[in-house]
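Worked Example 4.2. Read the sequence first, then its structure tokens.
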Amino acid sequence: MKRQRGMTLVELIISIVIIGIAASALFSAMASITARSADPMLRQQALAIAEAYLEEILTQPYLDPSTGNECPSAPGNRALFDNVCDYNGLNDNGARDSSGNALAGLSNYRIQVAVANGAAWNGVPAGAVLSVDVTVTDPQGQALLLRGYRTRY
């Protein structure tokens, strides 16, 4: 009959140290992943806000409907914006709808709009192209820029 041997104290301590190192590495990796888990949601919300603003702006007429001018001075009330250039310099703290009403749950986002004359594009002369930049900054300070073009046709 053979005698069975157990673990020595040294083997037991070495096993505990190795398991402890592996567990701490695993926990630190999980903490890092958990800390960044909100990033994709914030980025997706910023993208949705930027797309909504860009769509709202690009569906506006190129020229002011009442005067026929390209870029008249913008009215103070966003609900009265009636052409692409009216949005130039728009700076919203918190996402808003087209009437200027705050959207619930999105008050920590900052939206900035810049409208400028664009370069000649696809046979359209430079004077008939407007470049629209919508920059959305999320609560963590990460900025997302979407650019669109509106032509005079």
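Now turn to a second chain, presented in exactly the same format:
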Amino acid sequence: MNKKLVVLICLAGLAAALSCGHWRVSSLKAKKLCSIKAGSEPGNIMVEQEESAILNVSFLVRAYHGRLYTADNLLKRVQVLDTDGTPLLVIGQKGKEGKEGKEAKEAKESKESADKVRSAHFNFGVVGHITADSNGAIYVQNRLQPGGQAKTEKSDDMDFSPSYVLVFDKDGGLNYVNGQKGNPDIPFYYIESIDIDKSDRLLVVARTMDSWSVYRFNNKKREYHATLANLDFKETEGGETYKGRIESVRVFRSGENYLVSVAYYSGTRFKYRRIFDYSLAKGKQQTVVQIPDPKNELFSLVDDKHMFLWNVEDRRLKFVIYNFDGNVINNIRIETQDGKLYEDVFTDETGQLYSIHATRKEIDVMEWK
């Protein structure tokens, strides 16, 4: 976990104890790591050029182990970048031949630049989630969508086209492919997330309309699988039954537990949200916290000790931090940027916060401390 974030959490817990419940809010400061230019050269990401107020998000940026990982569904490629934006590896389709004139000159210059970057050839379908382990292996969700359209990963429509997890080595060579049972015979359905635990085991959270599944793999071998259904979550209070709907699942870095966030409704009216701690070995252990505010959705699990929940206010993104005793110990805040068509917030394997801020010309990558 990021050391400064640990200090903020600890100091806030002490301040809260001394101030009788008046929670402090720590405003994090941004450091710009790089700007990823829009384009097709190594280190670039192709951004849709249609003139509209909404950007069709066909790309993804993530950070792991001191590197940036990008997916580009317009160019059908995955890249590894240094944190300053320098391209280190490109995995994707081969370039087209037969260009002439100025276009040929630009292509030649681009090729000379590309020759300095490691590259590997692979024909992706639609790239979804990406993660990486401590050895530099790259894990890529590859969705086999008919026609291969670069459908936005942020669409409200769930796409149940079959998905596999491709595992590449640090040089871009394909090692193996994971499906539901470890081998690629049966694909996953809708993949919510892929992560790596502290032992470099692959963790996959997948779902259908009515159930969620958690998988753990050790290389090609599936070590664990559990399925939870919405029907499993019902609460009765005062003679009224509240129906639960699973909203998200977050797996611990230990690979041994996971959190399940469930929203309870009376008809269509939100009543409260409960977050449960599940053990792979023992099943449901306890309710960690009950939350009455519908906007406090589970964002991430940090260092297997703290939960970050969304707490958005205007253009400021705020996260409320809970411990596993169900107590609020801090709030942290980051600023969004004006004039951006798309923004995203994510964490790396240590809990360090990052954000991206996209226009049609470039994507800024920020680190928050």
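Notes for the reader: Confidence is low (pLDDT under 50) at residues 3-22, 150-155. Helices lie at 3-18, 101-114.
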